[in-house]
Specification:
Blueprint (H helix, E strand, L loop, with lengths): L6 H10 L8 E7 L10 E7 L2 E9 L4 H5 L7 E3 L3 E12 L2 E6 L6 E3 L21 E3 L9 H4 L13 E3 L2 H14 L4 E7 L5
Parallel strand pairs: 1-10, 8-9
Antiparallel strand pairs: 1-2, 2-3, 3-9, 4-7, 5-6, 5-10
């Protein structure tokens, strides 16, 4: 899947969906068809000045812990594919800088408490704290070949978009800070969009 992610394909997908393309900065999630529970098996594309400067391992799904222990009676939140304009700003997640939700976002809710994410259903507009952040501070991309077979999403995502590795996430935050923008747009697409 990763090899299919090119600037040309991303622009084409945006155009076909009438999404806004920012020539300076685009934050793009790609939800793959791999539904293996608790794995960082999606991609986060960081596009700066019309160039992909990083395609990072991430998750766009909640971890098994939250699927089995939803924080709400109607289930664990899942962000549907779409473009969410100016919906995040720089703030604090736990104890570090991250992109924090600053607008209402739609979500599906998975309430059956199994390990498989449900990508459909009623759309709710009640989620708060759906942030873009990182996994554990010691997880670094230089050890990704080993770590991706071992680490789990677990409690790291209850609906957030989570980059697996700290160094990848630090690059994202540096680009966001360098852009001098106050608000950030995130676009979530799916693997089938590349077909």
């Amino acid at each position: 899947m990763k090899e299919l992610i090119t600037i040309e394909r991303l622009k084409s997908i945006f155009q076909s969906k009438n999404y806004q393309w920012n020539p300076k900065l685009n934050l793009i999630g790609v939800r793959t068809n791999d539904q293996t529970p608790d794995k960082f098996n999606d991609y986060f594309c960081l596009v700066v000045d019309d160039k992909i400067v990083g395609t990072f391992e991430c998750t766009t799904d909640p971890g098994v812990y939250w699927l089995k222990n939803p924080g709400r009676i109607n289930g664990t939140a899942i962000l549907p594919p779409g473009q969410y304009v100016d919906s995040w700003t720089i703030g604090t997640h736990k104890t570090y800088q991250a992109l924090v939700q600053c607008k209402t976002l739609p979500t599906w809710r998975d309430a059956n408490k199994n390990e498989i994410v449900d990508y459909s259903g009623h759309v709710y507009n009640d989620v708060q704290g759906l942030n873009i952040h990182r996994g554990h501070e010691t997880w670094l991309s230089k050890t990704s070949k080993y770590l991706l077979g071992v680490i789990k999403i677990d409690k790291y995502s209850a609906a957030c978009q989570v980059l697996a590795f700290k160094d990848n996430f630090d690059m994202l935050i540096a680009c966001c800070l360098g852009s001098k923008k106050k608000y950030f747009t995130y676009t979530l697409i799916v693997e089938n969009d590349f077909k």
